[in-house]
Specification:
Layout: H1 6-13, H2 22-31, E1 34-37, E2 43-48, H3 51-67, E3 72-78, E4 86-91, H4 98-107, H5 112-123, E5 132-135, H6 146-149
Helix pairs in contact: 4-5
Length: 151
């Protein structure tokens, strides 16, 4: 069995928030024009990278609403990667710890690598393992309104 080196992991995962310190990552991203956004206690940060993830997000969100009707989407914009990349914030009717937040995000189809890295950071004691980095100049685009457009 081949062992993957740290360098190979870095190449596989890219310059992830786990392969550098949180402070270094945020400083680097701020220099590139990004701002940091951290979740409030009741927020889920969903990072969508594909159209399939987005479709599955709405399917799972519909199921979530059956259990928690007060849950709602409070933010839905393209991320810096452009379509189909999106940042979606779901407002839940209760507070969560980091592990619960990451589990809900993963169930709602958020980027699985991001969620795994968030678990690593949480396990390592990072006080805020969930984070969105956003560029201010990303324009809004038409958003699928799941309540109106759902078949």
């Amino acid at each position: 069995m081949k062992t993957i080196t740290d360098k190979e992991w870095h190449e596989i995962l890219g310059a992830s928030t786990y392969s550098e310190s949180r402070q270094d990552y945020e400083e680097r991203m701020h220099k590139e024009g990004y701002t940091s956004r951290r979740p409030d206690g009741e927020e889920l940060f969903i990072d969508i990278d594909t159209e399939e993830q987005e479709k599955n997000f709405y399917i799972m969100f519909n199921r979530l609403k059956e259990e928690f009707p007060e849950a709602h989407i409070s933010f839905n914009k393209p991320s810096s990667g452009g379509h189909p990349h999106r940042h979606i914030i779901v407002q839940m009717p209760f507070s969560m710890n980091d592990f619960q937040r990451i589990a809900f995000q993963a169930c709602l189809q958020s980027d699985p690598i991001k969620e795994l890295l968030s678990m690593f950071r949480s396990y390592a004691g990072d006080p805020c393992p969930v984070l969105f980095m956003e560029k201010a100049e990303i324009p809004d685009d038409p958003v699928f309104d799941w309540e109106e457009d759902w078949d």
